[in-house]
């Protein structure tokens, strides 16, 4: 999760041009995590490389720069159909293998598309809102209420015990997939309190004070995942609701773990490197 080679820088320009060309990275997103891809190219960074004249007059917005080129978000409505030769694909499998800059650009585009659609109307008085011209916000022209993109802080924690790591199967995961314990921050909590509470609630263990490691934007739907590490002892007891199984694993018998490109996988691989198992 290193930021040393960052190539994406966020910005906000509602008055951006409305065409895709050689000077822009063009991403077409709709709420819920879908992105428009060519029917014959459903892997990699899903930018449109040519002008798309068949696209309706969906909202355009410059959301940053990637490798020195503007990144344009074309934000489609929830029920938008795909033009001929294109299809809607969920961005989750597309994140695998992207470099840091492209990962950040795609996450920002997806999160802004969902937020922009969900806040078309003022939550205070119901008036149709307008994009602010200077910052990422929607403004009500009636009561002046401002809505900013929602970011939900969540923690994910690597729990170790010597040469073992604790991994858990969430009931939402595919069969056989295990990952680190994770959960959302509650109002009034510190991140450290969230880590200890989630560990106790989900796997029944008392853990040592956690240490922060790294973070990752995660657009499902609008999370900021903050990665921690801690230690614990004892046998885990899954809560039986969210977590259906939790076990200690040695590095040579790991189960199926999350794909590369996720902070969960980084936490596991970083531990394997720390103990000398990965070179």
Summarize the topology.
Layout: E1 8-13, E2 24-30, E3 34-38, E4 59-66, E5 69-75, E6 86-90, H1 100-118, E7 130-131, E8 138-139, E9 146-147, E10 152-161, E11 164-170, E12 181-184, H2 191-203, E13 211-218, E14 223-231, E15 243-249, H3 263-274
Parallel strand pairs: 2-5, 10-14
Antiparallel strand pairs: 1-4, 2-3, 3-6, 4-5, 7-8, 8-9, 10-11, 10-12, 11-15, 13-14
Short summary:
This protein is an alpha+beta fold and 279 residues long. The protein folds into 3 domains: 8-118, Nucleoside Triphosphate Pyrophosphohydrolase, CATH 3.90.79; 121-149, no CATH class; 152-274, Nucleoside Triphosphate Pyrophosphohydrolase, CATH 3.90.79.10. The chain is 16% helix and 32% strand.
Write structural notes for this entry.
By secondary structure, this protein is of the alpha+beta class. It has 3 domains: 8-118, Nucleoside Triphosphate Pyrophosphohydrolase (Alpha-Beta Complex), CATH 3.90.79; 121-149, no CATH class; 152-274, Nucleoside Triphosphate Pyrophosphohydrolase (Alpha-Beta Complex), CATH 3.90.79. 16% of the residues lie in helices and 32% in strands. It has helices spanning 100-118, 191-203, 263-274; strands at 8-13, 24-30, 34-38, 59-66, 69-75, 86-90, 130-131, 138-139, 146-147, 152-161, 164-170, 181-184, 211-218, 223-231, 243-249. The longest helix is centred in the middle third of the chain and has 19 residues, at 100-118.
């Amino acid at each position: 999760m290193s930021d040393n080679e960052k190539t994406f820088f966020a910005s906000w320009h509602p008055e951006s041009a409305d065409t895709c060309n050689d000077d822009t990275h063009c991403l077409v997103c709709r709420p819920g995590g879908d992105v428009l891809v060519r029917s014959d190219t459903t892997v990699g960074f899903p930018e449109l490389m040519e002008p798309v004249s068949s696209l309706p007059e969906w909202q355009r917005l410059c959301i940053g720069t990637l490798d020195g080129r503007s990144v344009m978000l074309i934000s489609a409505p929830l029920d938008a159909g795909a033009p001929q030769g294109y299809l809607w694909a969920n961005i989750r499998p597309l994140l695998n293998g992207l470099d840091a800059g492209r990962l950040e650009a795609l996450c920002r585009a997806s999160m802004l598309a969902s937020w922009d659609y969900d806040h078309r109307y003022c939550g205070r008085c119901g008036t149709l809102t307008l994009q602010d011209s200077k910052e990422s916000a929607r403004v009500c022209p009636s009561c002046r209420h401002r809505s900013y993109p929602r970011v939900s802080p969540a923690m994910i924690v690597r729990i170790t015990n010597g040469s073992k790591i604790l991994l858990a199967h969430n009931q939402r995961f595919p069969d056989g997939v295990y990952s680190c314990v994770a959960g959302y921050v509650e109002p009034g909590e510190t991140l450290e309190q969230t880590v200890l509470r989630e560990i106790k609630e989900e796997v029944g263990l008392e853990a040592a004070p956690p240490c922060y490691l790294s973070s990752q934007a995660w657009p499902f739907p609008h999370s900021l995942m903050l990665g921690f590490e801690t230690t614990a002892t004892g046998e885990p007891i899954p809560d039986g609701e969210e977590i259906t199984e939790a076990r200690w694993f040695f590095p040579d018998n790991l189960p199926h773990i999350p794909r590369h490109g996720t902070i969960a996988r980084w936490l596991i691989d970083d531990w394997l490197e720390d103990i000398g198992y990965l070179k």
